[in-house]
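Q: Hi! First time doing this. I have a protein sequence and I read that you can turn it into a structure. Is that right? Here it is:
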Amino acid sequence: MKVLITGVAGFIGSNLLDYLIEHTDWQITGIDNLSTGSEANIAEHKNNKRFTFVNQNCTDVKTLKEFDKVFHLAALPRIQPSFELITEHITANLVNGIHLIEVMIRDNKFPRLIYSGSSAIYGTPEHIPTAENEPVSCLSPYAFQKYEIEKYLELIATRYPIDYVTLRYFNPYGPRSFNPANKFNAYSSVVGIFLNRKKNGQELLITGDGGQKRDFIHVSDLAKANHLASVHPDKLNTAFNIGNGSTLSIVDLAKMISDKYSFIAKREGEADITFADITKAKTILKWLPVYKIEDYIKKETTS
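A: Yes, that's right. Below is the predicted 3D structure, encoded as structure tokens:
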């Protein structure tokens, strides 16, 4: 089995690589242009004969014929910068994915595409917890770009034998979520930001009143969902929520990490609540999250 991971040197991509190296015998090629990812994230696999790293853009990929599965994670997953650096985000979040689809069509070879989508497409949802049939209500260019890829897959699959699974991530956290060298690190996972500030003896900064709630999902649970989606025996061509199925306010998260915090201005374009209904993923993918954020924070703040 030969697979490709785009964005392999990023937070989620590198954790997916770890998971696949441990749980499969697959030959893995990873690509990343290192614009926000880091080679340090994949350094432990540098000499592994089952892994090959290529420093390149997704748009430089000429063929996907050799691959049985493609995990497309390359993106700029930041809401606020997507309002300002519009062209850069369109390229990263839309053009890259469309290019991979075009390569499949040109080659008439359709490896299963596991696409990393986002719960941001729901905006502030009407129904809590939120299922996959919730109306789309994008509050940012980032959310819209992630949804555009979903719609392209859906539409192109009416004409070509595209084989895809969309995983709508809720709020990932875990190892390597905060990269000090990433120019967008101020918009990283809030868990990573808070833990980094705690580590450096800094006060935690809570946007708004901290009452906004998030469904936090550990990156290893995300990696497992990617793996299960890739090996499911049926052609699915659908989307799955990948969250923990619970919710936690930002102010309560901060209190779990430190007693030193203050409040700053609310950021527009972000949902008031994310809370995944994960029934579909449980039923079809046989996937269940196992990590608890309380355990992760305790480990990170006491080690």
